[in-house]
């Protein structure tokens, strides 16, 4: 078999995990490298395992797949403790605490959480309780990660969250939101319309219900400005929709229209259907195909490749232009123009500095899985002999 | 009295130099320089031990805060 | 130079590295000898795909820099171009330490004699690498200068043979002592000072698939002009120090806890303060290797 890999091979591998048995070891090693870069190696490992093919693979390939799986398992093991602690910490400070995205998937125990890693714990609290929460968190050892005053200001003035906070001891990072999109983009919804869909999955642990989670994930992906790891997000959407009854889609459409994000949901439906071949019920399909033709074909041109993996090792036409377009799209959606200009002025000033001194006089932000630390947190808590 | 929480890994070193406890939920390791017997009697009879050595109170508090041990109801006593 | 790719066969891993820096290519060729493959074999199973490339930007013209990538992640700030090979070496270490979970990986030198291995975990400045280099050229087999890869639930350590990283004053010492050895070009003024890499001898490479049984752990501390002082560590102390030097302790979880506590139960543990390497060698041989079964 030809050692070259194509994007559609990776999609096929996702949909029909057993097709991995046709791979030569070298071809499999290339797939692994790309999937690791896309942050979906653990997810693929889970799917190979479910299909009963993991153990039939080359031993070296199994090693890499298991490594990725283990990181996810460890994260899962620890996230429950983190969530419990957060609830304890915020109990009296916030009217509600709703866990979002990766943390919510794990807490729900759905297959979407299997093998999935995430870099921070996202939670939603009422805007009015934000300051209270921040103070309580600070007392409990969480430290704000704002890089400088500009960052801090930006978050406070325009964003839908406060700067990320990292725990001094465990290194876990949390993102505390009060809305799901920046308030300043006029699209930010009345958050109560969304929080009414919260659901208690264990005592005091709240997440959005499944259709609302889908709507949120769609908004997150299609209002994003960085599409470099969006393949993971696309497969997230697939796993949320897979095997769902018709009324799940109807509810999602209802929620999306209610909070004003029907377009994002339409895009989510469209590309999961188009790129990952998921069959949709009639109403969902109608929404997926609802846009005017020109707009649709432009969108398709951009998204058909930016949502799929990009890597030197896989064959495809070069797409940096499409990436730039998708990024601009995300950026414009988030900020009305006058705000966008303000945002760009300060950032681009830094941009000039970077182009003069090289790109990285500033510490690069390396995205690590949230709960995976480097060295042991070994502290000799030495007690004296009684 | 206290008991070790579920899931904690405990290893008493055979040279009696102490014991290590690993909490898989926080990935923290604690090493206490006491023997297993001393540790067990400390948990079992925490009230008495703390009355005799005030600092043990801090040790127990610390272990409890770190999610390693938890208070549990005392077994019925014959006294 | 245009971007080129080469492969390194460093049991138990195969790396494919892309670079546009001549210095990297030259040093890799010199350090890795037969394990350096100039031509990429497309049919080879590759474990990690790394790149080390010149930084773009205006800075490029007056102070060229090198950037290291593993997948799309960039763990380090760019370094000066003359430090590129050292950066690649550190980057390979970072890659293994942050991905591999089949082994409990301790930041440590590992040397073997008569099938028995001693671990030397130590912070920078303790003279660990000089000690490693000395032993590796005096009848001991080098398994690693930086990472001990312990098979979980056993006392077996797997070799990961790589060049030894020497710093500052040790550079001249090593060049005087081991005149037959191969040295990389010097990376000046890194965050560790001046740095050079010394190629492992060919017998270390030849046996790079032969594991060894760990019989001791020694935490070395170099003290100028000091007499050799040996402190036996109790198990609790030795365990904590070992755990603190374990890269992947947290991700491995229970398995690393069991592995290290079991290991500590079966080996001897020492801290030594030394200045004379020959004295140290005699102590290791007579008191640890010869006395353990």
Describe the structure.
- The complex is a heterotrimer of chains A (386), B (79) and C (293).
- Chain A is an alpha/beta fold and 386 residues long.
- Chain A has helices spanning 7-15, 25-37, 41-50, 59-90, 101-108, 130-139, 149-158, 191-195, 210-222, 230-241, 246-259, 262-276, 282-288, 293-306, 320-334, 337-357; strands spanning 5-6, 98-100, 121-124, 142-144, 165-167, 173-177, 198-202, 205-208, 314-315, 377-378.
- Chain A has 16 helices and ten strands.
- In chain A, strands 4-5-6-3-2-8-7 form a seven-stranded mixed β-sheet. In chain A, strands 1-9 form a two-stranded parallel ribbon.
- In chain A, a hairpin with a 2-residue loop joins strand 7 and strand 8.
- Residues 317-322 and 331-386 of chain A have low confidence and may be disordered.
- Chain B is an alpha+beta fold and 79 residues long.
- Chain B has one domain.
- Helices cover 35% and strands 25% of the residues of chain B.
- Chain B is built from three helices and five strands; from the N terminus they run E-E-E-E-H-H-H-E.
- Chain B has helices spanning 36-44, 46-52, 54-65, and strands spanning 2-4, 9-12, 19-23, 28-32, 69-71.
- In chain B, helix 2 crosses helix 3 (54-65).
- The radius of gyration of chain C is 19 Å and the shape is globular.
- Chain C contains ten helices and 17 strands.
- In chain C, the strands form three sheets. Chain C has a six-stranded mixed β-sheet, with helices on one face.
- In chain C, strand 1 (4-10) and strand 2 (13-19) form a beta hairpin.
- Chains in contact: A-B, A-C, B-C.
- Chain A binds chain C through residues 3, 24-26, 28-30, 33, 36-37, 58, 60-61, 63-64, 66-67, 70-71, 74, 77, 228, 312-313, 354-361, 363-364, 366-367, 371-378, 380, and chain C through 18, 42-49, 55-60, 63, 65, 67, 71-78, 97-102, 240, 243-247, 249-253, 256.
- Strand 10 (377-378) of chain A pairs parallel with strand 4 of chain B.
Question: What would the keywords be for this entry?
Answer:
heterotrimer; B: 79 residues; three-stranded antiparallel beta sheet; two-stranded antiparallel sheet; globular; C: 293 residues; Phosphoenolpyruvate Carboxykinase, domain 3; 2 domains; six-stranded mixed beta sheet; five-stranded mixed beta barrel; 10 helices; 32% strand
């Amino acid at each position: 078999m030809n050692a070259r890999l194509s994007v559609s091979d990776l999609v096929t591998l996702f949909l029909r995990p057993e097709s991995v048995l046709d791979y030569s070891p070298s071809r499999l090693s290339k797939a692994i490298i790309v999937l690791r870069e896309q942050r979906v190696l653990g997810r693929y490992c889970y799917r190979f395992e479910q299909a009963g093919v993991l153990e039939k693979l080359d031993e070296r390939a199994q090693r890499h797949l298991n490594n990725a799986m283990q990181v996810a398992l460890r994260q899962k093991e620890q996230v429950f403790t983190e969530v419990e602690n957060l609830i304890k910490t915020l109990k009296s400070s916030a009217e509600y605490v709703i866990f979002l995205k990766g943390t919510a998937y794990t807490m729900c125990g759905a297959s979407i959480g299997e093998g999935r890693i995430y870099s921070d714990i996202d939670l939603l609290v009422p805007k009015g309780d934000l300051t209270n929460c921040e103070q309580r968190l600070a007392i409990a050892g969480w430290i704000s990660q704002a890089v400088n005053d500009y960052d801090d200001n930006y978050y406070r003035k325009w964003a839908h969250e406060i700067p990320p906070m990292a725990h001094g001891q465990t290194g876990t990072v949390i993102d505390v939101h009060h809305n799901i999109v920046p308030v300043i983009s006029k699209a930010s919804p009345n958050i109560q319309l969304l929080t009414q869909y919260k659901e208690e999955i264990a005592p005091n642990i709240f997440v959005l219900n499944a259709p609302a989670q889908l709507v949120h994930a769609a908004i997150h992906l299609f209002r994003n400005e960085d599409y470099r790891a969006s393949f993971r997000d696309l497969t997230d959407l697939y796993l949320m929709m897979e095997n769902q009854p018709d009324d799940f889609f109807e509810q999602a459409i209802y929620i999306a229209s209610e909070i004003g994000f029907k377009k994002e949901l339409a895009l989510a439906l469209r590309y999961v259907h188009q790129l990952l071949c998921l069959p949709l019920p009639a109403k969902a399909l109608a929404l997926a195909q609802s846009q005017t033709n020109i707009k649709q074909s432009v969108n398709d041109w951009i998204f058909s490749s930016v949502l799929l993996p990009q890597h030197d090792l896989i064959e495809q036409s070069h797409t940096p232009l499409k990436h730039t377009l998708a990024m601009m799209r995300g950026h414009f959606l988030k900020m009305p123009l006058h705000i966008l200009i303000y945002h760009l002025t300060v950032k681009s000033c830094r941009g000039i500095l970077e182009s003069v001194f090289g790109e990285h006089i500033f510490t690069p932000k390396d995205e690590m899985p949230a709960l995976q630390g480097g060295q042991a947190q070994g502290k000799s808590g030495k007690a004296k002999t009684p | 009295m206290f008991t070790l929480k579920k899931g904690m890994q405990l290893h008493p070193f055979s040279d009696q130099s102490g014991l290590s406890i690993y909490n898989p939920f926080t990935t923290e390791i604690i090493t206490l320089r006491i023997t297993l017997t001393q540790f067990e009697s400390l948990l079992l009879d925490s009230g008495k031990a703390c009355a005799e050595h005030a600092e043990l109170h801090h040790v127990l508090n610390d272990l409890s805060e770190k999610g390693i041990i938890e208070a549990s109801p005392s077994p019925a006593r014959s006294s | 130079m245009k971007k080129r790719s080469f492969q390194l066969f460093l049991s138990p891993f195969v790396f494919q590295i892309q670079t546009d820096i001549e210095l990297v290519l030259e040093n890799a060729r010199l350090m890795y000898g037969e394990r350096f493959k100039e031509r990429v074999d497309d049919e080879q199973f590759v474990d990690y795909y790394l790149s080390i490339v010149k930084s773009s930007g205006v800075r490029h013209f007056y102070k060229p820099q090198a950037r290291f990538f593993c997948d799309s992640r960039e763990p380090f700030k760019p370094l000066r171009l003359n430090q590129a090979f050292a950066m690649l070496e550190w980057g390979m270490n970072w890659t293994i330490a942050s991905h591999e979970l089949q082994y409990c990986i301790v930041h440590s030198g590992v040397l073997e004699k008569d099938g028995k291995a001693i671990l030397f975990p130590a912070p920078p400045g303790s003279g660990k690498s000089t000690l490693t280099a000395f032993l590796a050229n005096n009848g001991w087999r080098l398994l690693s200068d930086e990472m001990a890869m312990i098979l979980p639930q056993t006392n077996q350590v797997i070799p990961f043979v790589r060049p030894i990283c020497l710093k500052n004053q040790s550079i001249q010492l090593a060049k005087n002592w081991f005149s037959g050895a191969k040295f990389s070009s010097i990376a000046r003024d890194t965050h560790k000072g001046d740095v050079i890499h010394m190629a492992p001898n060919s017998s270390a490479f030849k046996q790079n698939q032969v594991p060894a049984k760990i019989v001791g752990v020694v935490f070395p501390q170099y003290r100028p002009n000091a007499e050799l002082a040996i402190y036996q560590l109790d198990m609790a102390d030795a365990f904590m120090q070992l755990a603190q030097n374990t890269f992947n302790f947290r991700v491995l979880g229970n398995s690393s806890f069991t592995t290290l506590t079991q290991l500590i139960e079966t080996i001897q543990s020492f801290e030594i303060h030394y200045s004379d390497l020959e004295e140290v060698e005699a102590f290791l041989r007579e008191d640890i290797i010869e006395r353990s079964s």
